[in-house]
Write a structure and sequence with these properties.
By secondary structure, this protein is mainly α. It has helices at about 5-35, 40-50, 50-70, 75-105, 115-135. The protein contains five helices and no strands. The chain binds protoporphyrin IX containing FE (HEM).
Length: about 140
């Protein structure tokens, strides 16, 4: 097994954790808000949420290392798209989805999910689909 194989395995596991969370957020959170179970879910998540920053760091480090190890160009479209995807989804999560989720959870009972809570995880799910495709076809190489 080469260093590339090891790095790519770590990279794909990191991406899979993130992508799964994005799809889940899109589908589950608005339903939790409507059911009034969002506060309980958020409380549990505060204890397990450390998994996501770790997976992002692994994704980023393995991606950067792969570029160097395999010898790709930093300007290649798929590399640029990967970096933009991390910045955009991190920003959306921290500034839009997170606050909207907090707002809905603070209601303490069944509530209509704020619009931002519905569109923001959908946007980063789409960002990830585009990024995974760009990585698979090595866009720009
Ligand atoms: C949300 C962000 C990202 C996702 C979802 C993602 C996903 C993936 C996936 C699924 C592959 C495997 C493609 C295949 O083998 O057919 C891959 C490969 C790769 N990714 Fe990413 N990636 C992301 C971010 C990044 C970043 C930020 C970088 C670089 C700074 C990067 C660099 C690479 C490289 C160089 C490969 C190809 C490795 C090789 O040819 O051996 N990725 N990525």
């Amino acid at each position: 097994m080469s260093l590339r194989d090891i790095l790519l395995t770590i990279h794909i596991i990191g991406a899979a954790i993130w992508f799964g969370a994005a799809v889940w957020s899109t589908l589950a959170y608005p339903k939790h808000a409507r059911k009034g179970t969002l506060a309980a879910v958020s409380e549990v998540e505060e204890k397990i949420g450390f998994v996501f920053p770790i997976s992002i760091v692994l994704l980023l480090i393995s991606g950067i290392w792969l570029v160097i190890e395999v010898g790709y160009e930093w300007e290649s479209a798929f590399v640029v798209i990967g970096i933009i995807a991390i910045i955009l989804s991190g920003g959306l999560n921290g500034r839009v989805f997170g606050p909207a989720k907090k707002e809905a959870a603070a209601a303490g009972g069944p509530v209509d999910p704020p619009a931002a809570m519905r569109w923001s995880p959908l946007v980063y799910t789409v960002i990830f689909v585009v990024t995974i495709w760009a990585m698979v076809v090595r866009l720009g190489v």
